[in-house]
Amino acid sequence: MSRPGPKIPPLSVTDAQRAVLEGWLRRRTTAQALALRSRIALECAEGHSIMEVSRRLRITPDTVRTWRHRFIERGLDGLCDDPRPGAPRKITDTDAERVIVKTLEETPKNTAHWSTRPMTAATGMSQSTVSRIRRAFALAPHRSQTSLLSTDPLFTDKVRDVVGLCLDPPEKALVLCVDEKSQIQALDRSQPVLPMIPGTPERRSHDYVRAGTTTLFAALEVATGKVIGSLHRRHRAAEFRKFLTKLDKKVPPDLQVHLILDNYATHKTPGIKKWPLTHPRFHLHFTPASASWLNLAERWFAELTRKKLKRGVHRPVQALERDIRAWLTDWNEHPRPFAWTKTADETLDKAATHCRRISDSDH
Question: In total, how many domains does the chain have?
C-alpha cells in the first residue's frame, strides 16, 4: 500500500490580488507568460488540483506546481521573472545623462546639432553606445520640423467655426474648402528622363528649363471630396472673383454655400468683400492667421503635387494645364473625402500643449 504524499498548502487570493490578476488577463499588452501564470493562480484559487489545472490549461503539472508554489511564497511578485544573470552594465546612468544633457542643452562648435561622431569624441563613448542612448530616449537631433503658432486674437472662435463646419455641416448647405495653388511651373528637364529598370530607379537631371506658370483655384467639397477647379495664368482678385462666379453656377441654386478660406490678400479685397452682398447664399469663413492647415484644400493640393506635379515634365504651360485638368477629371470620377478626425476642443488642446512647450523652452 503506497503512502500518501505531503499535503499541499491551499492557495488563496485576496480581492486586491484577484483584481490585479484579472487585469493582467484582460490587458492586451500583457506578456503571454504573465497572463498564463495569472490564470494558473486563479484556477488554483478556485480549489482545482494541480492535475486538473494542467489539463484545463494544457500545460505540464510541473509548470502549475512551480508557479503555484511561487505565488504562495511571494504573492504577485512571484509571478514575475527573476533577474537573469549577465554581464554588469558598462554604461552608467551618469554616462547616459551626459549624452542627453549635451544633446538637449548644448550645441557643438561650428555645427547646428550633435551628430554621432562629435558626440563620441566629446564623451569618450563608442558610436554604438551614443546611438543606443539616443534611441532609448527617442532623441533625433538630425531631424527638424516646421512650426508656426497663430497669433490671431480670434483663434479659438475661428477654429470652432471651421471645425464645426467640417464635422457637422448645416442642412441644405454645401461646405467648400477654397484655396489656390499659385505659380505652378511647367518644367522641362534639360535631358530626357531615364525610365526605371529592375535594380535602378528612374533618373532625371537636376536642372530644368522653365516654360511658364499657371494658377489653380480649387474648391473641395468636404462631404464628398469632389473638387471644382479653374486654371488662370494670373493670380489676382479678378481671377478669384471669376472663380466665385463659377462656383455660383456649379452649385445647385437651392443650397446655401459655406466657403472656408485662408487669409490671403486676394480673398479680402474690397471687391471680394462686397461680392457676398449680391450673392447672399454664400457665407465666407476664414481660418485663423498662420493656420491654413485647417483648410482641407491644402491636403488636396499636397495629393496633386505628390502624384502628378512633382515628377511631371511639361514643355509648354498648356501641356501642364491639360495634365492638371485630366487629373482633376479623374479625381472627380473617384472622389475621396478627407475625414476630419479631431473635434475643435481636441485641436485647441493640442495647440495649447504646443504653446506651453514653447513657453517652457529657454531657446
Answer: 3
**pTM listed for this prediction:** 0.65
Reported as a single tens digit per residue, the pLDDT across 160-180 is 888 888 888 888 899 999 999
Residue 265: which domain range? 155-196+204-354
Residue 175 shares a structural domain with residue 286? yes
Q: Do 297 and 185 belong to one domain?
A: yes
Verify that 168 and 269 share a domain, yes or no.
yes
Q: What is the 3-state secondary structure (H, E, C) of the chain?
A: CCCCCCCCCCCCCCHHHHHHHHHHHHCCCCCHHHHHHHHHHHHHHCCCCHHHHHHHHCCCHHHHHHHHHHHHHHHHHHHCCCCCCCCCCCCCHHHHHHHHHHHHHCCCCCCCCCCHHHHHHHHCCCHHHHHHHHHHCCCCCCCCCCCCCCCCCCHHHHHHHHHHHHHCCCCCEEEEEEEEEEEEEEEEECCCCECCECCECCECCCCEEEEEEEEEEEEEECCCCCEEEEEECCCCHHHHHHHHHHHHHHCCCCCEEEEEECCCHHHHCHHHHHHHHHCCCEEEEECCCCCHHHCHHHHHHHHHHHHHHCCCCCCCHHHHHHHHHHHHHHHHHCCCCCCCCCCHHHHHHHHHHHHHHHHHCCC
CATH of the domain at 171: 3.30.420.10
Say whether both 276 and 338 belong to one domain: yes
